[in-house]
Write a structure and sequence with these properties.
The chain is an alpha/beta fold. 49% of the residues lie in helices and 15% in strands.
Length: 178
């Protein structure tokens, strides 16, 4: 079935269609703008998940969270290097971003746990720390553990009520607890 828009005083059919689409979009935006903030932010998430930005692990991360029974039950913060991104002195604005997200997730979604999911062969660790740790898996685990535990300690200082889980994912999607 082909939709046809007549031409008239307001222009041709294509222009009429675009004008209607814009008006409909504006009405939808106006409707959501007048909704109470509590309605928009209602609900509860169990967890705030901090992960790295590495595109290679997006699907593995989603599968892992679903396998833990957390599909659509978590807020997700992404920083290069995950734990390293949240504690690095090189980019203090990243630190602030993490803490702002954590505060808002606690306020709006009543989270009770923070999961920090670093991963092996991390380019951010390589770039920010100046060494390729993936060549020595034991050393790589140690370097990640230091940053993960540092962030855990900072979270516990500021939010004693939150549980913290420290995780390290391989490029194959296997997750180990730290």
């Amino acid at each position: 079935m082909k939709l046809r828009f007549g031409t008239g005083a307001h222009g041709n059919g294509r222009r009429d269609f675009l004008r209607m689409a814009v008006l409909a979009g504006g009405a939808a935006a106006l409707t959501s703008a007048v909704r109470p903030a509590a309605t928009l932010a209602s609900g509860q998430a169990d967890v705030l998940l901090l992960t790295c930005m590495d595109y290679r692990l997006v699907n593995a991360t989603n599968r892992y969270m679903a396998g833990r029974g957390l599909k659509n039950k978590y807020d997700h913060v992404v920083l290069a290097g995950a734990a390293l991104g949240a504690v690095t002195e090189r980019y203090p604005e990243w630190n602030k971003t993490f803490w702002d997200h954590l505060a808002l997730a606690s306020e709006l979604h009543k989270i009770h746990e923070v999961m920090i999911l670093d991963h092996r062969d991390c380019g951010a660790y390589r770039s920010l720390l100046g060494e390729d740790f993936s060549k020595d898996p034991g050393r790589e685990t140690e370097v990640h553990s230091v940053r993960l535990k540092r962030l855990e300690g900072l979270i516990k200082e500021k939010h004693r009520e939150l549980r913290v889980e420290l995780l390290l994912m391989s490029l194959a999607g296997r997750v180990e607890h730290i």
